Amino acid sequence: LDVQVMETFKTKLGADHPSTLTSMANLASTYKNQGRWEEAEKLLVQVMEASKTKLGADAGKLDVQVMETRKTKLGADHPDTLTSMNNLAFTWKSQGRHSDAFALMKDCVQARQQLLGAEHPDTLSSLATVAGWS
């Protein structure tokens, strides 16, 4: 169903419309929940690149807003909040804010290690990102 929604938005609204990008992110979340890590990551990269192009600096502001809202509503150590931290780090990196992105991703790794464990795929993904950025 998520694939169908995404394809419909792409056809009707265009590949870079915010609703299309949201549906792509939702599909990536579904893939992640199904253990389809590579497909989820590939789709999220597409969303981040399109968001960067479409929204520019607003993407960072929106990512901060999502992260702060999730912290307030779900708690700082909730997995969805940590995903928001991860997304914000990628946005900042794409905007050239490398030191901010690196610091936030390191925080995300530490929080995921404590909450999810060192061997959890999300933890390992964030850890690989930090290693690649250093």
TrEMBL record:
This is Kinesin light chain. Pfam families: TPR_10. SUPFAM superfamilies: TPR-like (SSF48452). It comes from the Eukaryota.
